[in-house]
Specification:
It is a single chain. By secondary structure, this protein is an alpha/beta fold. The chain has 14 helices and 13 strands. Helix content is 39%, strand content 14%. The strands form three sheets. It has a seven-stranded mixed sheet with strand order 2-8-7-6-5-3-4, sandwiched between helices. It has a four-stranded antiparallel sheet with strand order 9-10-13-12, with helices on one face. Helix 6 (126-129) links the parallel strand 3 (113-117) and strand 4. The longest helix is centred in the C-terminal third of the chain and has 28 residues, at 287-314. The radius of gyration is 21 Å and the shape is globular. Bound molecules: pyridoxal-5'-phosphate. Residues 92-94, 121, 123-124, 168, 172, 197, 199-200, 220, 230, 365 line the site of pyridoxal-5'-phosphate.
Length: 406
Amino acid sequence: MAYTLEHCLRARQDFPALQRNPGLAFLDGPGGSQVTRSVVDAIADAYASCNVNTHGNFAPSREVDRRLEAARNVVAVFLGAKSGDCISFGQNMTTLNFSLSTAIGRTLQKGDEVLITQLDHEGNRGPWLKLEERGVVVREVRLLESGELDAGDMAAKVTPRTKLFAIGGSANSLGTVNDLALARRLTRQVGALLLIDAVHYAPHFPIDVQALDADFLLCSGYKFYGPHVGVLYSRPGLLDRLPTDRLSVQDPAAPYRIETGTLNSAAIDGLRAAVEYIASWGSGAGLRERIVDAMTHISDYEHDLAKIYHDAVRSIPGVRVWGPDFAEGRVRAPTVSITLDKATAGEAAKALGDQDICVWDGDFYASRPVQVLGLVERGGLLRTGISMYNTRDEVNRLLAGIEKLA
Ligand SMILES: Cc1ncc(COP(=O)(O)O)c(C=O)c1O
């Protein structure tokens, strides 16, 4: 089933925040999306029916155990993983990535190399840069002015000393989708691990961790219509071997090995509801088929709307669009960033915010690409993201606002 404006208008009714504030244009999806009524209900139900700890010998505790397992299984299907045993939960992507880098760092020797990129969010750079304190050499793949990573530089920087390559699936700053197949080929040749930051990728594209052949993949529920829960996929057998920070009393097996303390089980129930909501827009016999079908069609809708915005905003005098264009056949996320000659990104975002148009300005923690593109002095970028609930009317309002500012 295709996803059209008619479906979008129907979907909007499922998001309480959109119903409550019909005049607000939430074009800030890359910063965080709104949640559905089903997510709110799932979280409320968890608190109302089984707000107890796990592994108890009484009914509400058994229910929490059952729900956590169900959520792991549903998220595993969402990511195309073999089973829920590959799925660990945490506070957010950044915290999980720090836990992982700390553990992997303990297995590395002085002079071993880790590769990151100039395009990534700090959440996928900082945890790896921290390993420099242990004598690990952290190198970065160069970002080109086009908003794409330099493939030749990537090939040159994956060396026999490379132990891990941490790369984003898609850039939250520019919408670029990276060549993950190339990253996998290069890392395979030298026996390095491949870690994918899919925080900006997961809301816009179906994911198949097995087809990507990823060793680790991270994403975050609040970017795809769910609550604030971080997700780590680990290839079977990998996490069990890592010296993670954990208590002696904690279950040492994957996926629990990296999950310190008590999980936010109510939010995790909400995360399951978010994935099931996405699936409800797809058709097919099983959950995986419905997720892939829904994501594929929603992705097309978002892409078309983002392209309309991109092509129109690009033609406004005094506006420069950064990042890859929407050339036929190019895969990119529906996230478009601009600068204006006559206003900083902050001034523009404020003026638009005063008109109830929610867009972000600055670097969105993607400080390295903003620095490399020479945009720090100008206050960074003005970023617009299209989500499944955004309409042409909202984009038209945004364009009118920008035209005035330009
Ligand atoms: C591409 C990307 N990676 C990582 C993160 C960090 O995610 P979290 O807030 O879950 O730590 C973000 C958040 O905006 C992001 O956009």
